[in-house]
Structures are given as structure tokens and as C-alpha cells.
Amino acid sequence: IQAAGDALLIAGGAPRGTLYGVIGLLRDHFGCRWYTRDVTKIPQTETLRLDGLPDRQAPAFAYREPWYREVHDVDFSVFNRIKLAANLDRSDAFTARALARCGHIPFVHSFGVFSTRRPLDQIVNSVAYPNLPVRIVGFMPGVSSPGGPSHQAIEDVALMRAIPNMTVVDVADAVEIRKALPAIVDHPGPVYLRLKRGEIPVIFDDDHEFSMTRAQIIKEGEAVSILANGMMLSAAIAAAEALDAGGVSTRVVNVPVIKPLDGDTVLDVVRRSKLVVTAENHSIIGGLGSAVAEV
């Protein structure tokens, strides 16, 4: 976000509703470079006109740590020089950096390929090096995206693992998503969270405990161990059941946190197995398999 005189630029690839929210944050400090945490002190006489947008008054969602507070009846007319630049994924990192430096916990959400590979340099220098609490959420990762090669993030884990201070999480089902979010909010430093959009099997019960430090053995076995995460965990469970039926005792380990990896559990499982297999929705280079091999 850049402010110069009476010109204000809001850059980001978020939906229009999110841009309204950013504008709501800036209303009471127009002309200033940074945000204010207190979004309740908004003069009622201030108005805002959004050039280039439909003539309608839409609710704005103003950020309030760590969640959102709804702000209704926003009157947009005072800022007569507003430019909105959409689908600029690199700018999302700059916007998130500004929010994080003001004490907020911003979440940046986009396709996995657009939230990691395209803004990589901005993430490294603006988020990771200063160790800011920015949460990058990449959905439709790996080869699961229906958008073809341009939308398939098959190297996002490799990229995020290589970045200093970055934590990398790949959750398996809706229950684990609900359990992981509170842990991610409270986790220090930046976090990359992978999400699979669409219908996925529910694996865990509501009492499932998510850990940022420990992998979970969800099925014991003796001969083979399958280490998996994300959308591949359900496939690993199905494969283990088929192997068990064929007389091959198979263990399944859920590894939702790829970085930092729970090396103690990995070593324990490897020592007790004749064969270890990793299953992931990612390239074999730099992902879960590489992390396990590096232990």
C-alpha cells in the first residue's frame, strides 16, 4: 500500500469484498502510510467514492486481530482518487507485510501456484526474512487443480520449505482444517497452509488433536510404513487396508507439518519398518519425501 499526497493505491489480488475491507481499515487515517488497529473511531462525515466500481454500497469487513469484525453502512465518497489493482499476487505480500508490522495477523489466500511461486521474492524479503506472522493459504495445490499446468503447484512445498522461518502445513480433511487454524494463528513467524478445495473424505473424528510439532501414527503396522499428508492421507489409508488384506501389515503416519518435520517420529517409524513409502500431492523433489529422506 502506497500513500502519496491525495493519491492512494491499494494493490492486491483479493476479491472486491476484501478490498472493501482494506479501505475500511484506511478510512480514519487517509493520507497516512500505515494502518490503525482501532477501526471503531471512524468519523461519520467521511465518505469514499470508488472510481471504476459498480455504483452500490457493499458491506466492508474490517480486520480486527485475530478475526474479522463486520462494518455495515459504509459510505464511500471522500477518497476521490482510489485505484484498485486486482490479481497482482506479488502485491499481496506487501499488503500482508504492512498489516503484520502493525500488529495484525493477515491471511493471504489464492491458488497455491499464485500464492507461492509468483510472489516468491516478495515473500522471502518482505515476510520471511523479517519473520512476520503472515499466513499464506494456497488452495488447489499439486496436480489436484483443474486449471491445468499453469494452475498446478507441484513445487510449492519445495519453495516454502527452502525459505527461512517459514512453517509448512498440509492438512488432510475438514476436521483437521478446523483444528489447524487456531494453532496457525498462534504460531510465531510466517506459515504456509495448503488446502484442497472440493469434496474430500472426512478422516478424523471431531476430537482429533492437531499438533504443530508431532506427526501422528493413525494406523499401526509392522512391515510397511506409509507417511502421507493432505489429500493423499485418505489414499494412504486405503492402500494400507488393501495391503493388510493381502497379508502385508502396514502402518500409516499423518505428517501435516512438513516444516519443521517431526524427525523423532520419522526415525522411530523407519527403524520399525522394512519399507517406508511417502505419498504426497507434490513433485518428488523438495516435498514430504525429500524432508523424510533428509532426516
Give the SSE order as H and E letters. Answer: EEHEEEHEHHEHEHEEEHEEHEH
* Low-confidence runs of at least 5 consecutive residues: 1-88
Mean pLDDT: 76
Quaternary status = single chain
**What proportion of the residues form beta strands (DSSP E)?**
15-25%
State Rg.
22 Å
How far from one another are the termini? Answer: 41 Å
- Strand tally is 14
User: Can you give the helix content as a percent range?
Assistant: 25-40%
Instruction: Please tally the helical runs, counting DSSP H or I stretches of 4 or more residues.
Output: 9
Briefly note the structural class of the backbone.
Answer: alpha/beta
Strand adjacency order, main sheet: 6-7-9-8-13
- Describe the largest sheet: 5 strands, mixed
Please tell me what the overall shape is.
Answer: globular
Keywords, separated by commas or semicolons:
single chain; 295 residues; alpha/beta; four-stranded mixed β-sheet; 9 helices; 14 strands; 30% helix; globular
Protein architecture, described:
The chain is of the alpha/beta class. The protein has 9 helices and 14 strands. Strands 6-7-9-8-13 form a 5-stranded mixed β-sheet, with helices on both faces. The chain has a 4-stranded mixed β-sheet with strand order 10-12-11-14, with helices on both faces. Strand 1 (2-4) and strand 2 (7-11) form a beta hairpin. Helix 2 (89-101) packs parallel to helix 4. It is globular, with a radius of gyration of 22 Å. Mean pLDDT is 76; it is low at 1-88.
